[in-house]
């Protein structure tokens, strides 16, 4: 068998009888609690609270596939130091949340189930924040989930940030990029009996898919320790084609159609999965939806149509019609954990400070 088909990570099909790893360590500024959705079904919620009470809106982070609340620790720490309250949920089967087991997670868990997990955590944050709407931040498939929840009017957000997100018009292009990146993708899936971890079954595969080439391999090895052993297959399959109404998304973001930007789409220039063209198209569709919203309201859209464009050695950014588009130069798919994590955090901070 070709070496490319042999996983360096053991593919598991069932939960171990005893925990196979300790909980992800947390910095002193972040605490872990659990939300009970039903008996024996707890969801992990990480919280980072500023040292003094703040009137700023809180942030609510949604991870993507093979992630968990842990992927947001660096950004949560940065924003907490700037006075912002941050929360990050681990959906079922991720992080320290309850695990349904292989078959139920892979083939019995999709957008409706995961959105219910996220909504439970969202409601808990609303309770803690006494009704203040959070800023919704989603990465990768978590960005797709964020769009789905707004489109289904499950929640209403203060603002929306999409990071390397699966676009609401469908993620087929992402998997085409993945197939080009990894020519053994389909054959490996066949030999691995369609195991969800197959495309990420070695450190090299994780590095290529999730991080920039400059990100140290040793850090990839450390990071991948916290990845789940399996993932929902229905989650990405439910987002292959258009799965949202963009008009409902913008209607459920507070203040859309008013001056300022309320949606931010962030891309990494070295993101081998999502790239920059997919987020750019997503930002364009969202802008068209905002324009339609202002026209339907018979409002003066001149304020939201103003174009703001600039470029530095680290980023490219433009904004119009209430939507900002940012490219982090040199960053891979997990740019909140990559070398450019601080650059990305600063862009997020700049966006939320102008709300």
Give a structural overview:
The chain is built from 13 helices and 10 strands. The protein has helices at residues 73-81, 102-108, 111-128, 141-151, 172-181, 185-191, 203-210, 217-223, 234-237, 246-251, 277-296, 302-305, 341-353, and strands at residues 30-38, 41-48, 59-62, 86-90, 135-139, 159-163, 263-268, 308-311, 315-320, 323-328. It has a 10-stranded mixed β-sheet, sandwiched between helices. It starts with 29 loop residues before the first strand and ends with a helix. The longest helix has 20 residues, at 277-296. It is of the alpha/beta class. 35% of the residues lie in helices and 16% in strands. 46% of the residues are buried. Helix 3 crosses helix 4 (141-151). The chain is globular. Strand 3, helix 1 (73-81) and strand 4 form a beta-alpha-beta unit.
Which characteristics define this entry?
355 residues; 10 strands; 13 helices; disordered N terminus; 10-stranded mixed sheet; alpha/beta; 35% helix; single chain
